[in-house]
Amino acid sequence: MKKLFIITLTIIMGLVSMSTAFAADKSDCIYRSKIDQTINFYQARLYLIDSEYKILSDIGNDAQKTINYLQEKKEQIIQEMKDEKIELSSIKIKNYIAKKAKIGV
Fold it and tell me: Considering 29, 34, 81, 105, which has the largest number of Cβ atoms within 10 A of its Cβ?
């Protein structure tokens, strides 16, 4: 009887220790996974910032080229608009200027 009690107690203690070890492994896995998720989140943010910077940089470069072109060709474009008798509406003038800037740049 005493041997049976010791064997049963040993088995129960083994199961408890296995359960505790499994719980520790499980918590390690959960913590590791959460850290990996956080790392991935911040890496994605860096990628997004890099992408936004590139896009904004490209927009800025295009704007600078357009500004330079329009400043250099301002008098010529005005003369062309007079020659073509562009209607004096804001929209038509803007469209003409945008078209000229796009072709010139």
Answer: 81
